[in-house]
Structure formats: C-alpha cells, structure tokens
C-alpha cells in the first residue's frame, strides 16, 4: 500500500513539474524500476527508453497500442490514452542476451557475431552467490576451473589456461608479464559482487586483444551507474551478508551508486574470510582412501613436528582472507563527451599453497616435504581514466581513450620440513596501458579499429631468513634480479559487414610487436653464462567469420582465426624448483601461434536456445615444459640435491579439438531447463604426449522454478574421469600428489539454491551445495572441493 502510494506521488510530482506524460516500468515481483526498457508505439515511429528510475517520457506518443520490451522480461502491450502509465513486467526465467561488448569492444548484436560468447548477467550473479569470480565462471558449467589452493581458481578455455587466456576488467587487460603458464589465481582479485556482467569469448581473441588471448577472453564489467534524466539525484545502496559452512565463510559487501545529469559515482567494498576448507566425507568412485589430510606440520619448541589430523576431511592450512574495493566517478563534459576515473584495489592475506603443504617427502612415508608454503598477500591496484566521445564525423561515430596504471605485488614463501631457513621471493610489476578505440558505422557495416600500448616494469628479489636467528642469506630470485621490462604496441581493425538481412561477414587484422628485456647479476642462472635477455617478436593476426541467420530461429556461424602468444618474462627468465626438477630460463624461446576453426549451429526462439559448437586449433612452436640443459648438463645440484633440468621449450606442433552443446528452455510459465556439456582434447604431436590444459568432459544440468517472489534451482554438476595415459607424463612425474593410481577420477554433485524477494528492499538466499557430501577434485586440482555446504545470504537495497 505504502509502495503504491509512493509510485502515485512520484508520477503526480513528475506530471506536475513537467506537464508531460510518463511511463513507469517496474518488476512485477519486486516493484523495483526497470532500466533500459525499449518502448515503441504500434506505428513503429515513436520510441523511448526507461531511465534508472524506470521512467520514460512518452509525451510525443499518439494514442494507441504501446509495447514494452526488455531482454530479461516478457513483452507486454498496453493501450495508451494520453495519460501516465504504470506497467509491471514479468521477468523471464531464462533470458537470452542479444547484445555483447567483448567481440569488438563495442556493443554489438549477438546475431552478427560468429564466435561463441557466453554472458553472465547481474541477476544470475546475485542468485548464484559465488564466493569469487573464479567460482562465478565455474558455476556457468561452460568454463573449467582448476584450484591448487582455496585462494585460487585458474580458468581453462578450449585447452588453454593461465597466461594463454586473457583477463580484461572494464576494457583494460589484466595479464602482465609474469603471468605464468602454471595455474593462476589472479581472477579472485575481481569482486563478483561489484560486477554488472561478465562475458567469455571462446577461442582466439588476438585480433582485438593481442597476445595471450589464444584460448579466449574473460571480459568483466563492473557496475557503471547511468545518467539521471532529471534534476533529482538517484541514490542507491546495496548490502550483502553471507555465510557458508564448508569453510566457515563470512562475507560482507556494500555498494553505493549516485546518478545525476552531469555526474555519477560508484563505490563498492567486499570482505571475505575463509577458515580451513572441509572436503566431502563420502569417498567413492575412485576416491576411496585418497587425498586424506592425515598429518600436518606444527612448530613446537623450535622444532617442526608432524601432527596427526583429527579429521582427515578438514584441509588444514587452506583458509585466507580477501578484500576488494572499487571507486568510480564519471563527469559529463558536454553532450557528446564524458570522462571517468576508476580506482580498483584488492588484497589477500597470506594464501597457503595447499597442494604443496600436503605433499609427502616420498612415496612410502607420511612425513611432509614442506613445513611452510604460502603466497604472500596478493595485491592488485588499478587507476583507470577514460575519455568517451560520441558524435558522427568522418573518422568515427564513437571513440574512447583509456589510460591505465596497474600495480601487482606477490610473493612466494617456502621452508622445507626440518629446515630453519624460510625462502622468500617477491615480485612487483608496474604496468602502464594506453588504448584508443573507434567505432565507425556505415550504411550496412561497422568498422572497429584502434591501437594499444602497454609496458611492464618487473622487479624480483629473493632471500632466506633463519626463523630462529633472523640471519639473512642470499637466494636466487624467481626472475632476473637486475630487473626486466616488457613492451607491446599494436594496431588493429575489425570490419563487420551486413551482406544481407540474413548474412553478416566478420573480418579483422592486427599487427603486434613486443620487446622483452631482462638483466641478471647471476650469470650462471642463464644458459651459457649469459647475463642479459633481449627478445623482439612481431606478428600479424587475422580472423574471418560468417554469421548466417537462416531464418528467425536458426543460425549457422563459421569462424577462422589466428592467434599468438609472445613469451613473457615468466617463460624465458624464470628459475624455480618443483618436485624433483629445476626449471631454468630459456632465452631462445620463440612465440607460439595458433590456427583455429569453429563451426556452430544455433536455434533460438522466444523461449529456448540450443547451441552446438565444434572447434579445432593447430599450434605451431607450442610452448610447453620440456627437458633442458643448463651449461651442458641435464641435471643441476641445489642445496645438495640433484634435480632434473626443465625449461619452457617450443614443441614442433600440437593440436586441440573439442566441442560443446547447450540447451536452455522455458518449458512452462514457471519452469525452465538448462543443460551444458563440453569436452576438450589435444596432443603434443611432435612428442606424442597429451597437452596439459585440456579437460575431460564436464558440464551442468539444472531445473529452475520461478513464481513471483520465489526462485529455486536444482542442479547437477559433473566431471568425467581422465586416465593417467591422457595426462602428460611430465605432469605426473613432477606432481604425483595431484593424481590417483588411475589418474583423475570423475565425479558429480547434486545441489539446490533458492531466493525469496521479501519486499522491494530485502532478498534472502539459501543454498545447499554437494548435498551427498561427495569427496572430489576437478581435474589437475591440488585441493579437494567443498563437501556439503550450506549457504545463507541476505541482500538489502535502499
């Protein structure tokens, strides 16, 4: 009653002030205003859009039938008689997004895109309640995520991972020159609670994004308040409190949005604390007796002691804390120009490296190899300034200039069992980015073009500290101790041509040149006693694609593209020991290139979407881990231990292949069904070995029910087994603790999530994951997944 009175007063006030007719569009269940509703008259000439308050001016509309359309809501029509309207739209259970941004950095209709792109919208993010952005991607059922520790999450896309897939935040690349080929956890520095949406490009994105986009691009968009259309500021506050049982997770979040005609402001802060993660106790299907945390190490009276773990399902020393904050302001300089500034900061506590903390000293002993192994606080900050220009001229219709500075700080700290010396290796990267992007529309086509420049300064240090005496001694740094830098410059162009009402042709070309330099005072660290690394690589990349809309329901798309990844400092200048091997620099490493094909069929109606995709990639000079020699020897002695020498090397050729199927449908007014299944295989052809980052069959099946304020989803997640013969032998030899005697057993989980919109201000979420308390590990992961996990969350909007 009170809510209806507020709406009536608001409409009366606006009508009195402006003497114009307005339409107020709200959500049928929540009563909240809906932004960006497309409103059109039956004459097809009068159109309007709703603003942040859900309001649209329809004064110019003649009397007649008016239609209200939004991708996430069912279309509705109403007779307009010349007075104010209040329209309630019913939300779709499943929405099929029709606009994507990541394909060419500008908004583009999905029908004209020839690559597979997945979009996760804000409502899905809020319903799924992911703990991190890694969990957000994994929850889609279409991106495989590996974890070596609880504070991690390394996405794998079409057989590529880590520094071969690209992270982008608000248009700025996050990958830096020390992103490694091993598993990365940098995605957790992106706060899912601050996202408006996320898009994933499957397959090479090198034409638009350059090096590192061999497997795909993960493009994250943080909340960006829209302009107010009146003189009244629109202020919104959202809060979240969440608790889950498997790791005793406690999360608090708050964000504030302010919208005015000339100025917008957004601030978000989130804090999460995790205790040690409890794995599932139901060990079956190949997990019998596997991955039990039987012992852990404690320091007692100056001595490392092996302590019996009272509960083998509690993965001792896996907890950590995570903090994220974002502040963004935007100012309208004129009707066609605006400028924005964003500050992003994220840090963690120390993150225990669980897989190495649970590694035994040998195959027939319970003694552990490491007494301590943890990442220091993983810090990321970004300053991002953007200038946006709108207005047609001979060169562009839209343009944007992006200036960004990022700073990354991380460290690795390890100490062997019984050794008093703690080794600390610290890395710091300063990254500067300049990009200029244009969009020019012609009669039946669009030209997207631009340039980008980024530069990395890398500093690496190392030392050992005796934890009893505080004595400091030298240690080899992870990267050249004299400093390194990595610089890239590129120009690109992408052309989208509407050949007919049914056929769209996509093409693109990019030229990229990259220079890498590194210096070390330890000449023995590099092969042949070199003290300097100096590499320059250049590459042309291209893409061709066709999107053929056979009719209103069916679409076929074909895509051909090339990609490349230039070696970074982690590839050519890294020194570290893992297991029984020593990884050393290879200053003669060459770039790797890919040639990829994709064919897809899609059938989309108003209530269903089916998509089948097949792909094949051929890699040339693929960068892999391989045996190597250091100063003529294939072994090296470190602290009295003889280790086999490995390095990043160029394999002659490799291939990756696979496909995916997905189906989503509203089977009735209140029920929906969704299924996904994906597979990726591949081999190093030259050495006849499987490729490391390919994945077994995985996917998700879900049934969703929605009725006004209540929504629930019951879903089934699965991962097939991977036999030892399908895992690279070097991977098993160096990391035997990740696998069972059979390899990597398959698994499935049953889960349920619900939400209830109490009123326009409060929403309650309840979830139960891994109902059967299954013990399992996603392929190549070093920590077991959560056991039965009960989740409570309360959201409030003011």
CATH class of the largest domain: Mainly Beta
Report the CATH architecture of the largest domain.
Beta Barrel
Q: Are there runs of 5+ residues with pLDDT below 50, and where?
A: 5-18
Assign the structural class, choosing from mainly alpha, mainly beta, alpha/beta, alpha+beta, or little secondary structure: mainly beta
User: Could you describe the largest sheet, including whether it forms a barrel?
Assistant: 22 strands, antiparallel, barrel
Cα shape: globular
Radius of gyration: 27 Å
Number of strands: 54
Give the N-terminus to C-terminus distance in angstroms. Answer: 18 Å
Please, what is the CATH homologous superfamily of the largest domain?
TonB-dependent receptor, beta-barrel domain
Indicate the percent of residues in helices: under 10%
Count of distinct structural domains: 3
DSSP strand content: over 45%
CATH topology of the largest domain: Maltoporin, Chain A
Question: How would you characterize this protein structure?
Answer:
With 798 residues, the chain is mainly beta. The chain folds into 3 domains: 2-89, Immunoglobulin-like (Sandwich); 99-221, Ferric Hydroxamate Uptake Protein, Chain A, domain 1 (Beta Complex), CATH 2.170.130; 222-797, TonB-dependent receptor, beta-barrel domain (Maltoporin, Chain A), CATH 2.40.170. 6% of the residues lie in helices and 54% in strands. A hairpin with a 5-residue loop joins strand 32 and strand 33 (472-474). Residues 5-18 have low confidence and may be disordered.
């Amino acid at each position: 009653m009170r809510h209806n009175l507020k709406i009536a007063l608001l409409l009366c006030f606006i009508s009195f002030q402006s003497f114009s007719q307005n339409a107020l569009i709200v959500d049928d269940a929540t009563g909240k205003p809906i932004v960006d509703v497309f409103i059109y008259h039956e004459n097809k000439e009068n159109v309007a859009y709703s603003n942040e308050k859900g309001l649209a001016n329809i004064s110019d509309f003649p009397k007649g039938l008016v239609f209200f359309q939004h991708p996430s809501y069912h279309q509705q029509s109403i007779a307009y008689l010349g007075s104010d309207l209040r329209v309630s739209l019913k939300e779709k259970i499943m929405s099929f997004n029709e606009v994507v941004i990541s394909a060419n950095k500008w908004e583009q209709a999905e029908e004209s895109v020839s690559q597979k792109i997945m979009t996760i919208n804000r409502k899905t993010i809020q319903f799924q309640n992911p703990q991190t952005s890694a969990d957000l991607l994994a929850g889609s059922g279409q991106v495989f995520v590996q974890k070596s520790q609880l504070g991690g999450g390394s996405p794998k896309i079409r057989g590529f991972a880590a520094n071969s897939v690209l992270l982008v935040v608000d248009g700025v690349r996050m990958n830096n020159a020390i992103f490694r080929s091993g598993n990365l956890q940098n995605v957790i520095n992106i706060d899912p609670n601050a996202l408006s949406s996320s898009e994933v490009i499957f397959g090479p994105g090198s034409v638009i994004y350059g090096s590192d986009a061999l497997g795909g691009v993960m493009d994250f968009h943080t909340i960006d308040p829209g302009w107010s259309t009146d003189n009244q500021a629109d202020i919104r506050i959202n809060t979240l409190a969440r608790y889950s049982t498997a790791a005793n997770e406690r999360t608090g979040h708050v964000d504030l949005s302010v919208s005015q005609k000339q100025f917008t402001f957004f601030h978000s802060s989130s804090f999460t604390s995790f205790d040690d993660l409890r794995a599932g106790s139901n060990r079956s299907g190949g997990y019998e007796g596997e991955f039990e945390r039987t012992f852990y190490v404690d320091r007692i009276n100056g001595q490392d002691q092996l302590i019996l773990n009272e509960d083998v399902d509690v993965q001792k020393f896996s907890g950590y804390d995570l903090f994220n904050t974002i502040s963004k302001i935007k100012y309208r300089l004129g009707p066609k120009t605006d400028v924005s500034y964003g500050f992003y900061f994220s840090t963690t506590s120390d993150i225990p490296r669980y897989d190495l903390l649970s590694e035994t000293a040998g195959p027939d002993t319970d003694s552990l190899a490491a007494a301590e192994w943890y990442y220091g606080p993983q810090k990321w900050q970004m300053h991002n300034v953007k200038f946006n220009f709108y207005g047609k001229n001979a060169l562009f219709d839209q343009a944007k200039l992006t200036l960004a500075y990022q700073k990354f700080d991380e460290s690795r700290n390890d100490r062997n069992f019984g050794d008093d010396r703690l080794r600390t290796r610290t890395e710091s990267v300063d990254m500067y980015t300049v990009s200029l992007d244009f969009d020019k529309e012609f009669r039946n086509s669009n030209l997207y073009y631009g340039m980008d420049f980024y530069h990395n300064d890398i500093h690496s240090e190392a030392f050992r500290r005796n934890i009893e005496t505080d004595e400091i001694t030298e240690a080899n740094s992870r990267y050249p101790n004299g400093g390194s830098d990595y610089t890239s410059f590129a120009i690109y162009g992408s052309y989208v041509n509407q050949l007919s009402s049914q056929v769209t042709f996509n093409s693109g070309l990019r030229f990229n040149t990259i220079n890498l330099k590194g210096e070390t005072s330890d000449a023995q660290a590099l092969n042949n006693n070199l003290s300097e690394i100096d590499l320059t690589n250049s590459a042309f990349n291209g893409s061709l694609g066709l999107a053929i809309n056979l009719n209103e329901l069916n679409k076929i798309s074909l895509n051909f593209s090339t990609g490349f990844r230039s070696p970074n400092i982690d590839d050519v200048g890294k020194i570290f020991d893992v297991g029984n091997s020593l990884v050393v620099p290879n200053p003669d490493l060459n770039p790797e290139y890919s040639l990829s094909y994709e064919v897809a069929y899609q059938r989309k109606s108003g209530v269903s979407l089916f998509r089948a995709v097949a792909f094949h990639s051929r890699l040339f000079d693929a960068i892999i881990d391989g045996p190597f020699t250091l100063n003529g020897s294939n072994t090296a002695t470190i602290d009295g231990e003889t280790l086999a020498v490995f390095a990043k090397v160029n394999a002659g050729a490799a291939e990756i292949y696979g496909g995916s199927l997905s189906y989503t449908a509203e089977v009735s007014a209140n029920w929906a069904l969704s299924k996904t299944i994906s597979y990726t295989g591949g081999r190093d052809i030259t050495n006849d070995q499987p490729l490391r980052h390919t994945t077994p069959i995985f996917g998700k099946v879900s049934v969703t029910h929605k009725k006004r304020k209540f929504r629930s989803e019951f879903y089934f997640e699965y991962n097939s087994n991977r036999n030892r013969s399908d895992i690279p032998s070097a991977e098993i030899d160096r990391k035997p603790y990740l696998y069972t005697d059979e390899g990597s057993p398959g698994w499935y989980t049953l889960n349920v999530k619900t939400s209830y919109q109490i009123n326009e201000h409060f929403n309650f979420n309840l979830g139960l994951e891994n109902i059967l308390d299954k013990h399992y590990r996603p392929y190549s992961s070093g920590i077991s997944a959560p056991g039965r996990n009960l989740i409570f969350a309360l959201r409030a909007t003011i």
